[in-house]
Amino acid sequence: MTTFTNTLKNRRSIYHLGRNVTLSNDELTALIKEAIKESPTAFNAQSTRAVILFGDAHEKLWEMTEEALRPLTPAEAFPNTQNKLAGFKNGYGTVLFFKDTDVVKGLQE
Q1: 93 and 54 in contact (C-beta within 8 Å)?
Q2: Domain extent for 31
Q3: Each residue of 36-92: pLDDT tens digit?
Q4: Against a cut of 0.70, is the pTM above it?
Q5: Domain with 12 in it: what CATH number?
Q6: Which stretch, 8-12, 53-57, 104-108, has highest mean pLDDT?
Q7: Considering its fold, how many domains does the chain have in total?
Q8: I need a labelling partner for 76 at 20 to 30 A (CA). Which of 14, 67, 82, 105 fits?
Q9: What are the helix (H) ranges across the chain?
Q10: CA-to-CA distance for 109 and 94, rounded, in angstroms?
């Protein structure tokens, strides 16, 4: 088995996020950008975009998400939703991934 396949096979999700991070925001941003750039894409389209949030912007996102989900979630289920969102908010930052639809449309033409 290759190193890459072993890495995929042995990877695990981390559900208890925290803020004990040893890299600077600039180092994290550079690492995320490099991972996106070097990730394979169909026809090397490089259509992935990301918004990286730290600090107040990160916390505001999860507060806005909670308020947006409140009217959509049954009252009896909302405490579970709040707990899950609090877990995300407890992290150091957030990476929001998007697809550049102009790139995708260009491939379709």
Answers
A1: yes
A2: 3-108
A3: 999 988 888 888 999 999 999 999 999 999 999 999 999 999 999 999 999 999 999
A4: yes
A5: 3.40.109.10
A6: 53-57
A7: 1
A8: 14
A9: 3-10, 25-38, 55-69, 78-89, 101-108
A10: 34
